[in-house]
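Review form for a predicted model. The reviewer records the input and the model, then writes brief findings.
Reviewer: anonymous (R2)
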Amino acid sequence: MSSDWLTFDCYGTLVDWRSGMLADLRPVAGDRAAELLAEYHRHEPVVQQEQPGATYRDVLAEALRRAAAATGIRLPPDGDQVLGSGLTTWPRFPETDDVLLELARTGFKIGILSNVDRELIEVTIRGFPVPVDLLVTSADVGSYKPAAGHFTTFAQRSDVEPGRWVHVACSWFHDVEPAIRHGAPAVYVEREPEGRDTHSAAAVIEDLTPLPDIARALFTDSPQ
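Model under review:
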């Protein structure tokens, strides 16, 4: 077995959280669901920073309440719970399963570093076509990315050797920058181009399809 690790953010990288969240928000926001989601994304990292020990269900609910207040959208009773209730049904991206199967067949170890409750993500990863070798959640470390907890905990639990770890993620703020700070080259999955300077990423891809070839190239003695 290879000692080469690929770690992933889950929601947004492997799982299509935008489509899933929009589907959850339409019943409570109607044709303003996209507006509410955009506002939600502005509030979520603030809530995570303010309440690093909160469950992700509580973060989802609080950020949604703040987003609704900011947009003037009135949520129905218990409407702030729709994202927590729907998360485990969010779909994987079309290429996710084939890419994970190819990475596992090649011999890479797969890790997940996710800002979520363990009880929720364990439902999600049961649907993956391959086992996850190591899972680190916000509930495990008591903080949310981009804080250091996920990355330092992964390094300790995996005992990964220097140069044998690449992180793959769609969020520059939550994942790419902190991964690089912790010595892991990062593959940036730029599903929604933002026009940022991405030169410090090890690779920039639009979806996961080229990842197996990129991973083999990044590890000079990776399994073939």
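Findings: Residues 61 and 78 are 9 Å apart (CA to CA).
Further findings: The first strand starts at residue 5 and ends at 8.
Recommendation: see findings above.
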